[in-house]
Amino acid sequence: MDYEKLRAFRNNNNPFSSRLGIYVEELRPGYARAVKTVTAEDLNPVQVPHGGVYFTLADTACGSAMVAYGTMAVTINCSFSFLKSAQVGDRLTAEARELQGGRSVCVLEARVSGGAGELFAVGTFTFRRLDRKVEV
Q1: How many CB atoms lie within 10 A of CB 48?
Q2: What is the pLDDT of residue 67?
Q3: What residue ranges of the chain have pLDDT lower than 50?
Q4: Environment class of residue 94 by beta-carbon count within 10 Å: exposed (0-12), middle (13-18) or buried (19+)?
Q5: Is the Cα torsion angle 8, 10, 14, 19 positive or negative in sign?
Q6: Among 7, 40, 48, 88, which is least packed, fewest CB within 10 Å?
Q7: pLDDT on residue 1
Q8: pTM, to two decimals
Q9: What is the structure's pLDDT at 10?
Q10: What is the Cα–Cα distance from 14 to 93, expressed in whole angstroms?
C-alpha cells in the first residue's frame, strides 16, 4: 500500500475534519498522527476549545491508523477524557496507536498533546473493520 497516497486521500476526502482544519501528517498500520491549530472558531461559550475539537482530532488519527491496513473502518465505541484546555494558536497533535488488533474489532488509544508536551486529552477507541477495501 502507498501510505503517502492514502494519507493524501484521507486529507482530501474527509469534509468534516477538513472544516476543522485537521490534517493527517503520518500514517501506517496501527499508527497515525494528525494535527490542528486551535482557532477562535473552535471556542465554546467558556472561551476554550470545544470538546468536539479534541475528540474529532483523536478520532481522525485513530481512523487513519485503522484504514492503513487497507480496509475501511468505523468507530463503534469510545471513552474519552479531557484533561486540560488549549488556547487559540496552540498546535494540537493527536497520536493514535493500536492497543489490540482483531479480525473485525480493534482498540486504539489516542493522546492529544500540545507543542510543549502538555497532555490535553486521551481516549480509547473501538473500531469495527468493514468488508470494504480502501480505494485510493
Answers
A1: 17
A2: 95
A3: none
A4: buried
A5: negative
A6: 40
A7: 83
A8: 0.96
A9: 93
A10: 18
